[in-house]
Amino acid sequence: xxxxxxxxxxxxxxxxxxxxxxxxxxxxxxxxxxxxxxxxxxxxxxxxxxxxxxxxxxxxxxxxxxxxxxxxxxxxxxxxxxxxxxxxxxxxxxxxxxxxxxxxxxxxxxxxxxxxxxxxx
Length: 121
Description:
About 30% of the residues are buried. Helix content is about 45%, strand content about 15%. Strand 3 and strand 4 form a beta hairpin. The radius of gyration is 15 Å and the shape is globular. The chain has a single domain, classed as Glutaredoxin, CATH 3.40.30.10. It contains four helices and four strands; from the N terminus they run αβααβββα. It is of the alpha+beta class and about 120 residues long. A four-stranded mixed beta sheet has the order 2-1-3-4. The longest helix is centred in the N-terminal third of the chain and has 19 residues.
């Protein structure tokens, strides 16, 4: 059994990650987490996105969430980036490393990583 202080520290550490996953912020990142997505490696992609958003201090601006089947199983893992007043960008065949690059270049830098998008695969 953990001490009360240890549990409190765990709660505080996880608070930001929960806020990232449940918020209604401006930019939304949605990861396909149906059986096909999970089998293709979507869980490490989701975890990398949450960690990078937290590390970048974007908790109040970006929400990372999951959805069921997006309908293109052969292209999994799939990540959709939805920014206000911009077209949705769909990334396919994602990895944790690609997810980190998307946070750096698209979410922080404002330029989609075109080579990972659905139109290029």
